[in-house]
Amino acid sequence: MSYTALYRKWRPTNFSDVKGQEAIVTTLKNQILSGRIGHAYLFCGTRGTGKTTVAKIFARAVNCESPVDGSPCGKCPACQAMESAASMNVIEIDAASNNGVDNIREIRDEVQYSPAEGKYRVYIIDEAHMLSTGAFNALLKTLEEPPSYVIFILATTEPNKIPVTVLSRCQRYDFKRMTNDVLVERLQELVSYEHVEIEEKALRYIAKKADGGMRDAISLLDQCIAFHIGKPLTYEMVLNVLGAVDNEVFSRFLRALAAADTTGALLQVEEIVMSGRELGQFVQDFIWYMRNLLLLMTSQVGSEVLDLTEEDWLRLQEESRLLSPEALMRLIRNFSELYNQMRSGVGKRVRLEVAVIQATRPAMEENLDAVMARLDALERQMAQGIPLAPVPGAASPAASAPAGGNASGPAQPEEKPEPVVLPQAEWEDLNLIQAEWTKICRGLERVAMLSLAGTRVEPKSEGVLWVVFADHMNLNMAKTVGALEQVKAFVEQTYQKTLTFDARLAVQDEVVPTYISDADLSVFHTEIEIEDRDD
């Protein structure tokens, strides 16, 4: 006898075997028990959640001669005929390949004849959203006023593609994704019936991989059993079969990215490739790992909600201190884009390695995410007390010290630039902003403050000051977040001065001049004249 796949062998035959859809099952059973059976149903939901299975059970139940608690008895001639596919009362139609007007016209002609045996003729239209516009129009009248012995059940994964005129004629039931606990419970029942030994941790991984679909979970289990026939299934075996990796690998990979360890992260990619893991699966699971970490960092959910072991929970708590939620969200966004690109199947390794370099060397990129990553690095430097790189040409404390005041040795003679004379009012404004520049920057929003790291201020014109940037990426970031507008507002509110701030990039090796007021210059000239008269 040929082998039957597990998902077909253990497909539920009555409502009590259906898992995870209790509300829908209860409603349908009550309709059967009370005789309040509708003429058109729409079953919606993702793949493997039980739409077609429930439709078949419902079709058997409405024709059953003696239903048991709303479920088909499985013993009467009608039930046995439908189980052996010998009944003409249940017609299954695949709308993906029978989606034309002519196919629906055949149905419309057939419904004129009552069933030779049984109470109802049930049409199950799978993937109903694939029907053409003409086919839907041909179905409308029959769907609205079918004969009393006809029931339509439309099953679809994309209800948004069903015309509103059809939706309004159907009772809609939304099949939800099943929780991991429900999937694990069902898988444990199956392995018990099949006499297969398997670790619970392995079952939980299969359930997570199925993403809420019972059929997917059973198919994955079947695949793992086939690969290791007669052997107890361990977590490592399941990972090998499905091309996945352990959470410890994700942890090491994330820590390398957080530490900007390009070499370490690339070596891990090499290790994953050489072990035969599927890179697309690795990226998908790594995104899920970061998702769990983000939820831990930004909410009060516990390990039971995230479905984590105690070991994984403690590891995530430790990693939550390595990077900010904003940095983690950028990683999730970037790796999600990478996963979409990898689905083409071309150059997966190269794409992953480029993503690693982008994540660990943000200075090589000029997009917003890269700039934000650099600002995060600057913030960590500030928190650790590491001095930031000064603007090229900015005067250092030693250079601005009075001549002969260098305690480490005699001052080296160097050519000093001519002082720049400013009107008294401009000079006072410049002195105020230069003296308070650190305080002003710290009074801004976090991103704006970090974008102004290492800047200096110099005069431009009356009422206007230059903010000089050492880095064009910080300059672009400051423009993006409106840092100079924030500076203007802060100065006006704090010092009651209306000043405008403009931005420019520092010129390489430019010399920062000394600024004096015109009032100081006049005093300087007066002192020279007095000295001449004494001579």
What tags apply to this protein structure?
535 residues, alpha/beta, 5-stranded parallel sheet, 3-stranded mixed sheet, 25 helices, elongated
- How do the strands line up in the largest sheet? 2-3-4-1-5
Outline the biggest β-sheet: 5 strands, parallel
- Which term fits the overall shape? elongated
Strand tally: 10
Count up the helices: 25
Strand % is 5-15%
Low-pLDDT segments = 386-409, 526-535
Let me know the average pLDDT: 81
CA(first)-CA(last) distance: 126 Å
Q: What is the helix fraction of residues, given as a range?
A: 40-55%
Radius of gyration: 36 Å
The SS-based structural class is alpha/beta
Overview of the molecule:
- The chain has 535 residues and is α/β, with parallel strands linked by helices.
- α6 links the parallel β3 and β4 (150-156).
- α2 runs parallel beside α3 (51-63), α5 runs parallel beside α6 and α12 runs antiparallel to α13.
- The chain is 53% helix and 10% strand.
- It has 25 helices and 10 strands.
- It has helices spanning 6-9, 22-34, 51-63, 77-83, 101-110, 133-144, 164-167, 180-194, 200-210, 214-227, 235-242, 247-258, 262-274, 279-298, 303-306, 310-319, 325-342, 348-360, 368-383, 397-400, 424-442, 446-451, 472-481, 483-495, 518-534; strands at 40-45, 90-94, 121-126, 150-156, 171-175, 420-422, 456-461, 464-469, 500-505, 515-517.
- The protein has a 5-stranded parallel β-sheet with strand order 2-3-4-1-5, covered by helices on one side.
- The longest helix is centred in the middle third of the chain and has 20 residues, at 279-298.
